[in-house]
Design goal:
Elements: E1 11-15, H1 29-37, E2 58-67, E3 73-79, E4 90-91, E5 94-96, H2 104-116, E6 123-128, E7 132-133, E8 138-147, E9 166-173, H3 174-177, E10 184-190, E11 193-203, E12 209-213, H4 214-228
Parallel strand pairs: 2-8
Antiparallel strand pairs: 1-10, 2-3, 2-5, 3-4, 3-9, 6-8, 7-8, 10-11, 11-12
Amino acid sequence: MAISIDPRAAELLGHDQHLPPVSPLHFSRDALLSRFAQPPQWQPDVDVEKWYCAPDPVHAAVLVPLVMRDRASVLLTQRTAHLRKHAGQISFPGGRMEPTDADAVAAALREAQEEVGLDPQRVEVLGSLPTYTTGTGFIVTPVVGLIVPHDHDHPWLSLQPDPGEVEEVFEVPLDFLMDPRHHQRRAFDLSGTSLEFFSMPWSSEAGKEYFIWGATAAMLRNLYRFLSA
């Protein structure tokens, strides 16, 4: 069963104003390495979409790329409008695991290279978050990695998006995404059942709005829980 909705038109239930933002002190390389090396006791907010009904789920992996600028950011993509699934949506680089992939990390790095031209050697893998099962039947492993945009050994980060899959590559400040005041709880009605989801609308300095929602927003919400626990 395919679910087709306009997430912007879904009912806005509210924001989580009562939850504290993650301190930017936790966004340094050392702090992130320490958190993944010794993870806290925590629980993801959501790990399966309520409209999941796929009989044969497919394993997939995405890369959650944290770009280590003076103000850390998350690299995201906007998918092209012609794709069969998740067309036009904001996503992490990633896709289904192939038989040649040794594990989810290998799949995430391969997909990121194929989709946006990110050299796997530019990624320092921190670890993975719990899987997230989408309504379209993908069991997704989010692999979190650090990217240093430039240093003595690496020139400025230059990406080459695959025009067949990726409309645009952009970055959102990590402190914005890790602040629950920007986490909207929304819901749409499906045959009398209210199905809730997170959204995190963000506008660039140029004034363009990127409506982050669904699986991407949920995995970012789980990253928030992991870093704030």
